[in-house]
Design a protein that fits this description.
The protein has 19 helices and eleven strands. It is an alpha/beta fold. It has a five-stranded mixed β-sheet. A four-stranded mixed β-sheet has the order 8-9-7-10. The chain is globular, with a radius of gyration of 22 Å. Helices cover 46% and strands 12% of the residues.
């Protein structure tokens, strides 16, 4: 694809979708950077969403080592996640894209549909060992646009002391009925039930999705009876005092802080809280989010993809492929995902992670059952659907609308 055609495809719709998709992510601030126009043939540019890793960190050393292995120097810039997405679009418009782009997985399909990224067929990245459910987050229109560097997802942390005092056997919590019964026992024992994030942003949708998908609902049918049952579950928990009203404003961080007080039986949160869990002094465990009738609900995947943006000079792709392949090699995935508190995207590396840290076992199981938010070829449709979903959650939990009316209104907007 030539540069002028790529510029024409960078539409207002793509910009809007990116703005919504990246509204809830990451931390820190990035420095400015330049793409391939500023790089000579011996220098390749890498943009990533890890501004917290400065020069001299293990991550930057890995980038430099992969550059050396490919016979080039690396010019790396770390951006805040939302800033990275907008700068990527601008760079593509200017014909100044980085050689390697590491980007949050929901953004991949939007960039792909805008013509910013090459396919793995073009760039020759090998994705054969990647778990298919994780790879799906980087697919659009039957094509794959990168490879995951790692993944995280959601599960339920539980406080063993609180459950013991309430007479709850956590192994009995296998479906929604059993979980609600456990919460009732916890409340009767004078403790608090469950905390989560239902805030009116992507974080709220992210946390609701395990229950939404666990009901058997589909994102293309927000007003289905199954969708209503999932939202009714959360609404009933608030009405009965099993969950606090603070969930309406909770981010995933403030929700974690509530669980970390030691007063709650359960807290829905992610792999990224493992270090905090170990510091909190709580005797905790982790179970997977149950489906309505049992089994494991699919939770949404977080994490980034290594992608190769379109360049005016296709001669650069051979070296770029070497850099990207190095970053996602078995050993480098293990080292990187351990640093980022991610579960690796391949079974081989996952097994190494569990061998080194048995506490990751339930998280590997959760990631293997997880689902990309843009999977099912939703692509740029997802941000609009998600926005209406979190608005419906807010309306129902605040009591301004019934779950059915809230989701009916949401679906009418999406249509």
């Amino acid at each position: 694809m030539n540069n002028s055609s790529r510029r024409r495809r960078l539409t207002a719709a793509a910009l809007t979708a990116l703005a919504v998709a990246t509204s809830a992510t990451a931390c820190g601030s990035g420095s400015g950077g330049t793409g391939t126009k500023a790089a000579d043939n011996g220098t390749y540019t890498v943009w990533d969403p890890y501004p917290q890793f400065a020069k001299g960190s293990a991550w930057v050393k890995l980038l430099d080592a992969c550059g050396t292995e490919a016979g080039v120097k690396i010019k790396r810039t770390g951006f805040d996640t939302s800033d990275l997405a907008s700068k990527t679009l601008l760079a593509a418009q200017q014909g100044n894209s980085p050689d390697v782009l590491i980007v949050d997985n929901p953004v991949v399909s939007t960039l792909a549909e805008a013509g910013v990224l090459t396919t793995t067929g073009d760039n020759k990245l090998d994705t054969s060992k990647v778990d298919p459910n994780l790879l799906a987050a980087g697919q659009s229109g039957g094509k794959t646009y990168g490879t995951p560097i790692g993944a995280n997802t959601l599960a339920l942390y539980y406080n063993k002391k609180v459950l013991k005092e309430a007479g709850v056997d956590v192994t009995s919590v296998k479906d929604w009925t059993a979980l609600t019964a456990a919460l009732a026992k916890v409340k009767k024992a004078g403790k608090k039930g469950i905390t989560f994030s239902a805030i009116g942003t992507e974080e709220g949708s992210f946390q609701f999705l395990p229950w939404f998908w666990g009901s058997g609902a589909k994102l293309t049918e927000l007003d289905s009876a199954k969708s209503v049952s999932a939202l009714s579950l959360w609404g009933d928990w608030l009405k009965k005092g099993y969950a606090p009203n603070s969930v309406l404003n909770n981010t995933q961080t403030t929700s974690w802080q509530e669980f970390a007080t030691g007063d709650y039986a359960f807290g829905e949160n992610g792999t990224w809280q493992l270090a905090n869990a170990r510091k909190a002094g709580i005797d905790y465990g982790v179970i997977l989010v149950p489906g309505v009738g049992g089994g494991q609900a699919a939770a949404p995947t977080g994490g980034e993809f290594v992608t190769v943006p379109v360049q005016d000079s296709t001669d650069r792709y051979t070296t770029t492929q070497k850099i990207a392949t190095c970053l996602t090699s078995t050993q480098n995935l293990y080292d990187t995902d351990t640093t980022l508190s991610y579960v690796a995207p391949t079974t081989e590396v996952q097994d190494k992670q569990v061998a080194a840290d048995p506490g990751l076992k339930p998280w590997v199981a959760a990631v293997k059952a997880a689902k990309g938010r843009t999977s099912d070829d939703l692509g740029t449709k997802y941000p609009k659907i998600s926005e209406q979903l979190w608005k419906a959650v807010q309306s129902a939990l605040s009591g301004s609308k019934s779950p059915k009316d809230a989701l009916t209104a949401a679906q009418s907007v999406v249509k």
